[in-house]
Batch of 2 targets.
Target 1
Amino acid sequence: MEFGKFKSTEALNQTYNRIRGLGLEENICELDTYGFTVVPPDKVADKAFFERIRSTVLRLCTERTGIEFDLDQNGAFGEYKAQPQSDGQFLLFYLLMADRVFEEWILNPTLYALIDYLMRGQQQLSSLTSFVKWKGDRDSLGLHSDSPPDRDGHLPACSDVANAAYCLTDYTLDNGAIAMVPGSHLYCRQPQPGEAESRAVPVEAEAGSLIAWHGNIWHGAFPKKTDGLRLNVTSYHCHRRLKTQEAYQWRVTQEMLNRNPPEFARLVGADDHMGWDENGPDYARGVRYMSDDVKKRFAAARAKQAKKAA
């Protein structure tokens, strides 16, 4: 028996084979069991890419605050007004539109494979941000789930959203690591204030690692007790039926679409015909950036219909 070639799972075979090819089986097991995983740097990206994306984030910090940023020094808000801002932290928003390195990042094979597994191929990029953190106080771990609850307050067992942090500095407990409550993705609800903080663990990872998690898991962050910056790039994805946090669908340029594969267009909603004006929907958008697998299925269906008509 050969797994990865079943006819009844054509939509999942590519994801399965991609995971095996990248050696991510253990990470998938951790995602399913505990709700999060840590992928070591050598399975994420090479050193040159890591240095390029980190230097770009530092440059954007300087441009948006008007203050020179350095990894070994604490940050400051300066002229940057974007919210939310808390003691020792701000977020850089809309990174996808800031530099081409971020276009490369959202197509990173390891990131794409893990998100694709969690979202069963229905993912779109919701936001691409950087949490810029330095020494500061926290009253709590701020535990929460990224998934939006249903009207009755429950969360679906499937991952309606999925998140991942590319660590641009070392993550340690004293350095303000992400806090996770292992297995809490199975509770399918948001935590109550203060709940489960004693069961939260620091997700420690060296710079260059990728931390990925199921949308339901309860997580937050420990306070940063050391000087210097804790940096990441956070890639937040949501199901195609949900609204994205950042606007991409109509704002990505044709130049961006042309220089990237169809997966990029689907991630930013360029294949989505919804959101039309007085001219109505443009169904060609969906066809233009259709995956090879879907194209094959459509072609097979058309051929079957043509055969019946004959």
Target 2
Amino acid sequence: MKALVYNKEFKNKIEFTERKDPVIKSSSDAIVKVTLSSICTSDLHIIKGFVPRANNDIVLGHEFVGEVVDIGSDVKKIKIGDRVAANCITFCGECYFCKKGFINNCQKGGWELGCKIDGCQAEYVRVPYADMGLSKLPDNVTYENALFVGDILSSGYFGAQMCEIKNGDTVAVIGAGPVGLCSMMCAKYLGAHYIIAVDINDSRLQIAKNKNIADFIINPNKENTEIKIREITNNIGVDCVIEAAGDKSTFEMAWKIARPNANVGIVAMYEENQILPLPMMYGKNLTFRTGGVDAIHCDELLSLISNNKISTDFLISQKFKLNDIEKAYKVFQNKPDNCLKIAIY
């Protein structure tokens, strides 16, 4: 089969090449024919060397949908022929952490696909613990509708959940990229009254506004974010902050715009260590939560999509054939203003 492989020895670290078709290795495995996949910023982090746990010479990618073509003998919930969305996390469902819902720290899995084992930017992919990691699509949900369920939509939901949003809360989301936009949608669904989108990219801010998932938009390059937040919140600060940008300045912004006793949920992946300035923050009594997504709500998110409660279709900016995936990576790396997510088919 054709696949995009990451290897430190390649000139550009990635190469579209031939790879053996995946086969069942464990009775809990499934083989999925990839219908659509996408490129994630964390794929770029691997290429740049910012993910030390990533193995060399692997097929990249962890965000995909497709059709089940083979299953192991212990797979019960998923059948050959099922249309499925994949979880970005591999988890057994039985260990200490899985039973508590902390699947990102599964003792037998975690972020495996496209990091520790071959991922989905290929014609076929092997999915371990298939009954856990694959969700059957409702009949009225298309592959495009479901493409982002197992990763960025789950990440947005995770970020909103970490903030423990209450009805009537004002929530600021820093970063209006794909995860930030998903965070806004999920925050609205969980009861936020006002959403404030913060980004330096005007086109992304306008998407948030035009899609009615942000009530206020702020470009820090054009106005003082802290002052604007105080104006919006009657000089109090926001009840919740979701940090989805991943920069030193946005990390600092997150705790500065939060009101005392607020919740700060950090879903961004940083390329450098960040520092909590505890003496400066003393007295604000903030609660910080952060980490890799515990994507345990895929079935619920698919139900929300099926019932027209949320939609991520607008996130697909461009489509590329699998044969053109190296070109797609160049486009995604350059991040033109109108590029949110790329679908590979």
